[in-house]
Every structure is written in C-alpha cells, then in structure tokens.
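Section 4.2 – Deliverable D4.2 (structural model, holo form)

The reporting period included a commitment to supply a predicted holo structure for the target in complex with S-adenosyl-L-homocysteine. Inputs used:
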Amino acid sequence: MNQFPNIPDPSQKRVAIRVAPEAERALRGGHPWLFASAIRRLSHEGQPGDLAVIFDRKGRFLAVGLYDPHSPIRVRILQHDRPAPINEEWFAGRLVAAQQRRASLPPSTTGYRLVHGENDSLPGLVLDRYENSFVLKLYTPAWVRHLKPLLAAFIAEIGGERIILRLSRQVQTETGALFGLHDGALLYGSSPQGSLRFVENGLQFETDPIHGQKTGFFLDQRENRARVERLASGASVLNVFSYTGGFSLYAARGGATHVTSLDISLPALDVAKRHFEINDHIPAVAAARHEMLRGDAFALLERLAKQGRAYDLVVLDPPAFARRQDEVAGALIAYGRLARLGLRVLRKGGTLVAASCSSRVSANEFFRVVYEAAAAEKRPLQEIERTGHPIDHPVTFKEGAYLKCLFAKG
Ligand code: SAH
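Output (structure tokens):
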C-alpha cells in the first residue's frame, strides 16, 4: 500500500476503557460517542487514532472506536456489540452500505454526500461526491492513522478520479505538522483542472473543493431547493445567504421572474452569477432576471424593508448560529430577528422558507421562534410543511439531527 507515501501506517495500538453505567446504556443503545467524563478506567493514555476497546463493569465488550485524547468526545465508535478487526475489509463493508443507502438518488444528481459521519458508522468523517471526484473531510485527527486501509477500500469499492482531503481547523493544527498532510491535499488520482462540475436534479453546478465552504457545496439543501422550485412560478424571489445561488437557480427554473441572491461573500456571488450562465440553455433560467446583493443580511434586509421592497418568496438559510451550547440563547434571538426581517420584505400571502443548520438548536425551538417572530410582526403563518434531512444525510442519533426548514405562507 505504498501508493499513499505521505500517509502513516495504520495504528495497531489499543487502549482499554471501562465506562460508567450511563455510558454503558448509551453504547448498548448504539450511541456513537463516548465522552471523556464517562470513562471510569483507562489502561494508559493513548495517541490520536489508537483503537479504544470499551468494556462494561463486568468486563464484557461494548464497542470499539477511535481514541482522541484531545477531544471531549474521547472515543468515536466504529462498531458496537461485538469485536471486529478494523481493516480494509471492514471499511469496504461500511462504504458499500453507505452507497446502497443512496441507491435511490436519480442519475440527474451526481453531487451528494456518500458518507455522513456517525450516521454511516464512519464517525468524524464526511465523504462528498462531485461526479467522479470525491472530497474527504476529517473532523478528528484520529482518522489519519486509518486512512490507508480506508483509501484502499475506497479504491476497490467506489473508484473515481480523485480524492481531495479537507481538514477541520482542529485537525489542521493537530496533524498538519505531524504527517505533512494538509488541507486541500490530493490523496489519490489527478489534480482537478479548476472547479469540479456536477449536476443536481439536472442543474449544472461548479464547486471549488479547496477554497469553498464546507466541502464546496451545501449538498444537504438539495430537496429544499427542489421544493422552492415548485413554489416559485411567477414569483419574485429573495434568496438570503445564497452562497453560490443554489436556491436561486432552482427558483429560476421553477419560473421565478426575478431572483435576488444576497450573501456577504463576493466569491460566492461570483459563482452564483456563473451558475446562471452555465444553465442558460434552460429557457426559464435564461428568462429570469438575476440580481446580486453583497453585504450583511441583517443590515441589507433592514434597508430593503425601509425601501418598501416586497418579494413573493423569501429564503432564509443562514450559517449555523450556535456551534456551542452557550451560544444557543443568542442563536434563538438571531433566528427570531432574521425571521422578522424576512417577513418585512415578504409580500402579504407570500412564501417564507426559513432554515436552520445548528444542531444545538432543536427543530421545535427553531419553529417556535419563527412562529413567535411572525406573531410579533402580526403576520400569522399558514404552514405548508416542515422538512428535515435528505437521504444522503441520514440521522441515526439525537445529536446528528441539525437541519430543519419551515415552508409557510405569511
Ligand atoms: N443557501 C446556500 C447555503 C448557505 S450557507 C445554498 O443553498 O447553497 C450560508 C451563507 O451565508 C454563506 O454563503 C456565507 O457566506 C453567508 N453569510 C454568512 N454570514 C453572513 C451575513 N452576515 N450576511 C450575509 N451572508 C452571510
């Protein structure tokens, strides 16, 4: 396996752990995390990527996972209930299962998430597919020592032209220096020539997997974008936090007459413009007028409201407002304020689409705040639907649910 010269050999080291009774119950129930606070006995301090073998009070096997001495999530579970060697064959099984879970995606969608971390039993790891290119993002340094067998399994089972590595900020600081692996490194295959191209529900998109946000595209909003397309006929649409114009393009194809993409990022808006150009063979896209507004969403919404602007459909899809528990209260206030501002630029009887991707904010709390904002604005909402996760972003444990979206007439 010297096809990956920069990648260290797999860790064969193990730490043994005994856990507190609550953690025992959670692990028996299939929970994918063991927190440091639940560890009762540890054989010795391990290195990132050592395999942690977890036992109950009576010394019975509970789970095996990846040890990360610097994270409060001390172990990310790979396998519950019975021991298994964590090797190429084991990874192949997980990759094949992940692929089967997504088998119903249509050929008109070549950009989707192939592995969604914990929810596909590969915790702390995301693998996104953009046609024949793949972007592998690691959220824990523990993965670095298991990349070789994972990549070998990937090449055997999935293939593709290339894999690009992305590292979360924490992984960059911890492993970059250690192994010479860096954010944006090519793990396998040929370097991409510029952006990666893919289609989503037949629309063409381009993404920069190295400089773009997340792995380059917000694949999780695909179905909500398709819903907006169905609601957009004849509408003027304001897409707030548009990024590279995903919702905007769907609205245009759905027959929106005017579409405004609003974002703080100029590079993102430049790509949104390009997305309209590369889809202008679609008559409805060519016919829609696309405008771009660059700046802070809150300030711009206030300005648009003052100018008396009103749209038939308003999409609010902000970045996560709460990344930590102590940010939740502030996030709820921000979601409420955003919904109020969104309603002020929504024509009476128009459609409000309000999304949240903060896992710390529950769906119920989020929907409550939007309804309270509507009441405060004296714009009672008539609900169309509430949506959650698409099939390529499955949810298998409570903390894994992050995406929620409300569609309502306001
Ligand atoms: N709806 C998009 C994804 C949105 S991601 C899609 O379907 O692809 C969130 C976006 O909000 C990012 O593009 C980011 O640049 C932008 N953003 C972050 N803070 C902002 C702010 N204060 N005002 C406007 N845009 C902001």
